[in-house]
Amino acid sequence: MDQAGEEIEEIIMQALCHETRRRILRIVGSGEKGASYTVLMNELGLPSGSLNYHLGQLEGLVERNKEQRYTLTPVGKRALNLLDSITADTSPDFEKYVKIARVARKGSWPPPARNFVYICILGVSAGTLVTAVLICLAVSEGASIAISGSLALVFLLEVLVLSLLIYALRVAPSLIGRFEKRVS
């Protein structure tokens, strides 16, 4: 593939990777004369800042004509055709593979974020172990109740943080996905 083809591919894939931009392409492509800014705002239910951001991301695929309506460019038409071809002629066999892909995507974290959480879990686990040893020493050496109580409180806080980090490994990918949808 030549460099121009790769660039077109990258531009189209970037546009299609976000649900809001796919919806904009469909709305703009559905009308013979395109779509006005107001129509896009009303149909998408987005604040103007978010709509402006997504329209900016679609530059080169949509453009404003003399009547101030958004229309598809030739690249935008190709992107919409590709989008339509993806959803056309789906068979019941597709659902099996879509389900597999959905499950694979649901639990995934970007590797740097996942590794950071693992490092935090290791660090907090080591701190919890040290605190447990200090509690044993404090009790066996007859330390004051204030010192033993403080160590016990620190231990409980460390266990709580450790529990939250482990919980985050399981739940955060879906929370992040919901947050991204709400922000965009």
Notes on the protein architecture:
There is one protein chain. With 184 residues, the chain is mainly α. It has two domains: 3-89, Arc Repressor Mutant, subunit A, CATH 1.10.10.10; 101-183. The chain is built from eight helices and three strands, in the order H-H-E-H-H-E-E-H-H-H-H. It has helices at 3-16, 19-30, 37-44, 48-57, 74-87, 92-106, 111-140, 145-183; strands spanning 35-36, 62-64, 69-72. A three-stranded antiparallel sheet has the order 1-3-2. A hairpin with a 4-residue loop joins strand 2 (62-64) and strand 3. The longest helix has 39 residues, at 145-183. The chain is elongated.
Spell out the key features of this protein.
single chain, 184 residues, mainly alpha, Arc Repressor Mutant, subunit A, 3-stranded antiparallel beta sheet, 3 strands
Helix-strand sequence: HHEHHEEHHHH
Question: What is the 3D shape?
Answer: elongated
What is the tally of beta strands? 3
Instruction: Name the CATH architecture of the largest domain.
Output: Orthogonal Bundle
Could you outline the blueprint of secondary structure elements for this entry?
Elements: H1 3-16, H2 19-30, E1 35-36, H3 37-44, H4 48-57, E2 62-64, E3 69-72, H5 74-87, H6 92-106, H7 111-140, H8 145-183
Antiparallel strand pairs: 1-3, 2-3
Helix pairs in contact: 1-5, 2-5, 7-8
In short:
With 184 residues, the protein is mostly helical. Helix content is 77%, strand content 5%.
